[in-house]
From TrEMBL:
InterPro entries: CheY-like_superfamily (IPR011006), Sig_transdc_resp-reg_receiver (IPR001789)
This protein's UniProt keywords: Phosphoprotein
Stored PANTHER family: HYBRID SIGNAL TRANSDUCTION HISTIDINE KINASE C (PTHR43547:SF2), TWO-COMPONENT HISTIDINE KINASE (PTHR43547)
Organism, scientific name: Belliella buryatensis
Sequence ranges assigned to domain Response regulatory in this UniProt record: 19-135
CDD domains xref list: REC_OmpR
Protein name (database record): Response regulator receiver domain-containing protein
Record-annotated membrane-spanning stretches: none
Gene Ontology MF, one: phosphorelay sensor kinase activity
Record-linked Pfam families: Response_reg (PF00072)
Modified positions (4-aspartylphosphate) in chain numbering: 68
Amino acid sequence: MHLNTYFDGHMRGFMMRKKIVLVEDEEILRQNLEEILKFNDFDVYSFEDGLSALEQIEMIKPDIIISDLMMPGIDGYELLSKVKSKSTTMHIPFILLSARVEKSERDRCYALGANQYLIKPLKTFDLIKNIQSLLQY
């Protein structure tokens, strides 16, 4: 019984790791964010552009999506809009990252369905706190 309790506890922790899709075109920032998220016990699926992420999101079934706003090709606006328009993905919390501080940018993102809009440069604590809040830790 003691061994089963030990095993169950460890398997439960392993099985409960949350999956994050991270979309960021700046390689160094993407790598840094990926490292931070993995250190905080998230399974991270990284993409350098919105199209690559969009092609994989339904298969990955992430618990949350974190995306840069300004990217070549499918930008954060379009990725957010496409994710929120599908019944199979519309429930996924979505955090947008941007260096743009204008209220109109934030309002546009929230109108498209963003759950959070964070300003770059990011503070690690703020990012993790927002993720945990959206995932209801």
